[in-house]
Amino acid sequence: MKRQMRSSKTSTRIPTVTQTTLKKTAPPAGRNKKKNIRSISIALALFILVSVFGIYLYKLSTELPPLTQLEQINPDMASLVYSSDGEKIHSFFTHNRTFTPFDKIPPSVINALIATEDRDFYHHWGINLSGIARAILVDISSMKFVQGASTITMQLARNLYFGYAQKIDRKIKEAMTAIQIERTYSKDEILDMYLNINFFGNHAYGIKAAAMRYFDKEVEDLEVQEAAMLIGILKGPSHYSPVRYPERALKRRNIVLLSMMADNKLSKTEYDSLKQLPLSLSLTNPYNMDTAPYFVEYIRQQMNALQDSLGINVYKDGLRIYTTLNTKMQKYMEDAVERELPAIQARVRRQRAFKDLKETLSDSAFNKLSLMQIAFVAIDPHNGHILAMIGGRNFEDSKWNHVTQMARQPGSAFKPFLYTAAIDNGFTPADEYQDIPTVEFGPDSTRWNPKNYSGTFSGQMVTLRNALRRSLNSVAVRLISDITPKVVVQYARAMGITTQLRPFSSLALGSSEVKPLELVSAYGTFANNGVHIKPVSILKIEDKNGTVIYQAHPAPKEVLSPETTYIMNNLLQNVVNHGTGLSVRTKFKFYHPAGGKTGTTNDNTNAWFVGFTPDIVAGVWVGLEDFQYNLGPGMAGSVAALPFWADFMKTVYDSLEFDKGVFPETSGVVKLKICEETKKLATPYCPHPYEEIFNVKYKPTESCDVHSGPHNIRRVRSKRF
Fold it and tell me: 320 by DSSP, 3-state: which?
């Protein structure tokens, strides 16, 4: 017990402190007060600093993109234009960017990106703290921004929202937004957005556009060294442009390859081999319209017209535009023009008017003035689809589309509308008019003496069939006087002509201007059994998600009876088989069933040929831009326009495999043997009977009363001989 008490005393004993000791260890009261004030001041300063920084961060957070915007990242995307046979023929854009799904991006692109830009990408949550610490030390030591420590996610945030300004608040906002992006998207989705959004220089936004721009290939076909070059460009699209600075781009590519080796994505052997390869660029220009430029421009104009009604922007919304163009037919059309045009152009320039003019002009001025222009379009008459189009000689020189924007006099190519009105109103191919001069009066009561193209008149009676075959103007102006110009205008309107048609007798000879696209479409009514369908160029439009937002709905309109259509087809086939279109058969050896009509205006200013088969209707116009000059003597439609049509059609039918149709028959038309002289039903005694077709409603019912027996045969023979 005593030992315990002693021990207790020992453990609780307080040392004796002398007065001197107290003086040495106890601070003065004033000093303690200063120390306390200093501590409070530091704490207050820290509090203020933290508060200010907190307020600063809060202010920055209010400037961040909202979560809804992060959840719906929507960069500008190019709209792609496709042909009917699945070819991409053009794109419309403000930023040349096309989305590529992540699974289409080859591993070499992903490996190059991560190895070069962010090796810890799959291990951080938007920001890399160790990287930031290293960057801060480097920046402080150099007293300027040298390293940014940006992760791939931070770079994505910068490209989407903040730009490239070298400011600390921009870096902080990048980091804060990167964290939000990482919380919203998976790592693969972030890589996908990064590669689709980034600018790769030279008008290429996104990896798909870059692959096409620099190597003319799809993303999935990129080789390792090509992927490395594209990723290398991202450090400075202008500085490392392989177009302007190929040596820089090559060095940068090899740095990327070295980074891939360091990140164990390439072996030393692979690296040594790949770094020796040249860039091997295959440059493409996204602004070039290499395929059917006039057609593509026509599509662009239509898309602009649809923007308000559909609520779209063709240059930003990443649309898919599916068109009617057939790329094979387009090439055949271009080839036909290339083959036939030089000889025809040379003949135009050989005319006397141009020979004299050439002596007073420079070569460039003369070539421009004497340049023959062309409009050429082909349509499927059964659905209105525009299959091929050439709107002029050179799209780069002139965007003016002669197919859709120009209106010129069609000459005799307008006559089928006159004959259609006649046949539909009771006339028959056997009806006759005399081929003699006539006097007509224009709208201002001026006298007008229409002439045949040959300048001569036979004075004989000519059937409508032969008048159309020979394209006799004398018969056409008499026929329109009987039909009346007003009725002819009605038929032309019903068949698709919308331009102003002046209702005078000169209309029979094509004096009113028409657009080539409308004229060709109107001829399609003959090939489509009397049903007209307006031209169609856009089949459907999809938004970037694949939702159809527009679908073409052609509206077929029956404007001619099957009987009238059959007879007109027969008459127009006669033009090709035996008339002004005969060279289709004799020179170009195109033997498929076809009808058509030539057209030539006064002084050979315009030359036309419009023709059709059961499958295709196509038309050609040629002429000069300046109305002061013409194609020259002898340059009728059969000489200057028909060769393009015949060459194109023969190539199409010889080259393409498709179900080739036939012109439909109709029970409302009969073929009868009639007397050449009386145009009544032939008897066994008629010396020159021949077959003609008739609408059953208007067929002849009386037999020939001139050749009713053997004595009439002798009388006629003695008269003829």
Answer: strand
